[in-house]
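Single-stranded DNA-binding protein
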Amino acid sequence: MNETMICAVGNVATQPVYRELATGASVRFRLAATARYLDREKREWTDGHTNFFTVWANRQLATNVSGSINVGDPVVVQGRLKIRSEVREGQPSWTSADIDAVAIGHDLARGTSAFRRTQRAETAGSGAPARPEPSWETPPAGTEDERGEAVAENEDQREAVAVT
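Tokens:
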């Protein structure tokens, strides 16, 4: 319960590597998170230190990540921070900062993205009927909405519809 949860914002540095394991799907990629600051003397933004994280995603998240992100994409990653290090002959040989991802998405402050819901595999005996997605589209003028009420094209028609 005392795991360190972090949210890292950066760019995908390596192509995601997808693996199908006995425990389910897994994907990993490197995330580069660079601090930026305003240099008041130069009056311009300057790049600071870059931190690299290895991001791991499992199961359905792994499947969705492998079909959604590529090198260079700006992403937001939320997950558990794991610091690993190895010591050889009494000297530290390497240290790695890994994120066991809970959620990954495109950084919409730096671009747009189109969400597509994945189809879940139906489990045998679930018994729950499939619910259709609601229609969020605005119906064309002169038609009826889902309650059977007329839809107006402009303000004058809205007033006329409201009176009838």
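The CA atoms of residues 93 and 150 lie 72 Å apart.
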